[in-house]
Design a protein that fits this description.
The structure holds two protein chains of two kinds. By secondary structure, chain A is mainly α. Chain A has two domains: 458 residues, Sodium/glucose cotransporter, CATH 1.20.1730; 69 residues. Helix content of chain A is 80%, strand content 0%. In chain A, helix 11 crosses helix 12. The longest helix of chain A is centred in the N-terminal third of the chain and has 48 residues. The mean pLDDT of chain A is 90. Chain B is mostly helical. Chain B has a domain of 26 residues. Chain B is 56% helix and 0% strand. The N and C termini of chain B lie far apart (58 Å). The chains are: A mainly alpha, B mainly alpha. Chains A and B meet through helix 5, helix 6, helix 7, helix 10 and helix 13 of A and helix 1 of B.
């Protein structure tokens, strides 16, 4: 990386830490530290909500997904707008009027301490682990692509974030989120500009889209009702609705964002910002990945983008890997010719039959390249055995950034990846600290203490969770499959926690014992559904929420009868 | 602890975000239709 890019990345980190500390005013009281004294405007909260949801792996992984699989992942977000409307009408006024610090605090008022403690504990366990993964995922990719030391990369992301979050509390988190969101969007626009500018003269943007579309990369909607298919219109609309209701309505890392808003309506507007912008933004990121696909049709690309995996294949299965590389070079050259021929035939307005023949030639050649790449991937996975996960698509966008972006913009894009990671981590650390102090320390250990004392403990809790996340990141980085385990762990209880809130807000007859037993039963139901069936994970959120509601109501009816 | 009426929030008087909610859902339908057109056009 050029020294100018290094300077930009270093300047970004120094500026964001300085800014976070500068914005720590008003954090000498616990309400200021955790809720910014409920004074923040809707647009800042809305941007913070979006920045929290978009981690570095969203940015890098989603562009990779666009490259490999097209834009159909956008269906994952289809339930989000309706979820935001439902939450604005239901939980937002409840939480704001109840003057709670955490979503789980509300459950004690409605049910009992054990339901509050269990849901909060589940949040702490899963978010603590996922915070580590959020640091680990970009750290692994950046260390591989840029040749940085992995431990130093983890610390470069983690330590500055812990520092400004600890010092400035939610004020620092929100206002730095706003700026980081701007950096991310600017970085994406810069990448798109370079991608379009870098297309061959004969290939305009329209032709590029037709080329990508011919191999299904622009197929956004899949209306099949197949419960085993990960991303369909229905899994996004229904499963995604339940997931988004749970994530934005019951997960402290998001609830805390809109608890800082000036009023109930400002909180609602902050959620509606995501409702308007999330799908277009995700579609834009996926389309960036599709543009990378088209861009790389006309450039020499490696067979595998992860250089460590390529090295593993080349070392462990040298002869087979070399043969595949030769086959790949030929297939890739044929695909480039076919893509150019297809674009030219469209531009020249040739007869339909000629255009169709050019299109079919490109589709065949693209399938040949994909086939060689898949065989190379299988070979590497065999060579690695059970030692690590395999996801070459995550390395596509960083490869494009480091090899094809001009000096200066490389630094901006790396800063954007840092920004995406840091904005999510900061919000999570802040919410982990809040749940630890409010739901456990103040509730069980020291109910009556001064604000200064709680503030001191809150900063210690932030530092603790930061250190925990960095340790998990270093551990997870060496154990690839752990990342997937942690991601799946979240889907085990998201729907179930939503079920508890449905009982709390929707059914006056629900009791604390009913909610508690329902929560355990719901998680067991999700565990059974995921091990005994092939149901796609989005549907597990529906299973969890429905199971908790049904079991909770049944147990409530029984316990009420007994008392 | 059972729920009490005191826990329930008062009706949200003074707030009329109904048009905003409708707008959100209308925009989503437009975005979905645009994605559908996009998929078909470049298929």
């Amino acid at each position: 990386m050029h020294w100018i890019d290094w300077t930009i990345v270093a300047a970004y980190i120094i500026w964001i830490v300085w800014d976070g500390i500068r914005l720590s005013r008003g954090t000498d009281r616990i309400e200021g530290y955790f809720l910014a004294s409920r004074t923040l405007p809707w647009w800042a909260v809305g941007l913070s909500v979006m920045a929290t949801q978009m981690s570095a792996i969203t940015l890098v992984g989603t562009t990779g997904q666009g490259f490999a699989d097209g834009i159909r992942f956008v269906q994952f977000y289809f339930g989000l707008p309706l979820a935001m409307v439902i939450l604005s009408l239901t939980v937002v006024p409840f939480f704001h009027r109840a003057k709670v610090y955490t979503a789980y605090e509300f459950l004690e008022r409605r049910f009992d301490p054990k339901t509050r403690s269990l849901t909060s504990l589940l949040f702490l366990l899963s978010r603590g682990m996922s915070c580590g993964v959020i640091i680990a995922a970009p750290a692994v990719i950046l260390s591989v692509i840029l040749g940085w030391n992995l431990t130093l990369t983890v610390l470069a992301i983690g330590v500055p974030t812990v520092f400004y979050t600890m010092k400035g509390g939610v004020q620092a988190v929100t206002w730095t989120d706003v700026k980081q969101m701007v950096i991310i969007v600017c970085g994406l626009f810069a990448a798109v500009a370079v991608l379009i500018y870098g297309l061959p003269d004969e290939v305009g943007l329209g032709s590029a889209m037709h080329v990508a579309g011919s191999v299904g990369k622009l197929q956004a909607l899949d209306f099949r009702f197949d419960l085993t298919e990960q991303y369909t219109f229905w899994s996004g609309m229904i499963g995604g609705l339940f997931l988004m209701l749970s994530y934005f309505g019951c997960d402290q890392s998001q609830v805390q964002r809109y608890l800082t808003a000036k009023s109930i309506d400002q909180a609602r507007h902050s959620l509606l910002m995501s409702a308007y912008w999330k799908i277009p933004l995700q579609a834009g990121i996926l389309l960036t990945g599709v543009l990378v696909f088209v861009f790389f049709l006309f450039r020499p690309v490696p067979m595998l983008f992860n250089p460590v995996d390529a090295e593993t294949g080349a070392t462990a299965r040298s002869a087979e890997y070399q043969a595949l590389e030769q086959e790949f070079d030929l297939a890739e050259a044929a695909r480039a010719d076919a893509a150019l021929a297809m674009a030219r035939s469209r531009a020249a307005g040739t007869p339909d039959a000629t255009r169709q023949a050019a299109r079919e030639a490109f589709v065949t050649s693209a399938a040949a390249v994909a086939d060689v790449r898949a065989r190379a991937g299988a070979l590497v996975q065999e060579a690695k055995g059970s030692d690590g996960s395999y996801n070459d698509a995550n390395y596509v966008f960083p490869t494009f950034v480091t090899e094809y972006m001009p000096v200066g913009l490389v630094g901006l894009l790396i800063a954007a990846i840092f920004a995406a990671a840091m904005s999510s981590i900061a919000a999570e650390l802040n919410s982990l600290s809040t749940a630890t102090v409010i739901d456990f320390y103040r509730r069980y250990a020291k109910p009556e203490a001064s604000d200064a004392h709680y503030l001191f403990v809150s900063k210690l809790a932030t530092a603790f969770w930061g250190a925990f996340a960095c340790l998990v990141a270093m551990f997870a980085a060496g154990l690839g499959p752990l990342i997937e385990v942690v991601n799946r762990f979240g889907s085990f209880f998201y729907g179930s926690i939503l079920g508890v809130f449905i009982l709390a807000l929707g059914f006056r007859s629900a009791t604390g014992t009913g909610a508690f037993v329902g929560l355990i039963g719901g998680m067991a139901a999700v565990g059974l559904a995921s091990t005994l069936t092939d149901v796609a994970f989005l549907w597990l959120n529906v299973v969890g929420a429905v199971a908790v509601t049904v079991i909770g109501l049944a147990v409530s009816a029984v316990t009420r009868t007994r008392t | 602890m059972a729920s009490t009426d005191a826990d329930a929030p008062a009706p949200d008087a003074g707030s009329n975000l109904a048009p905003a909610y409708v707008r959100v859902l209308v925009v989503e339908v437009i975005v979905l239709l645009a994605l559908y057109w996009f998929s078909r056009h470049f298929a």
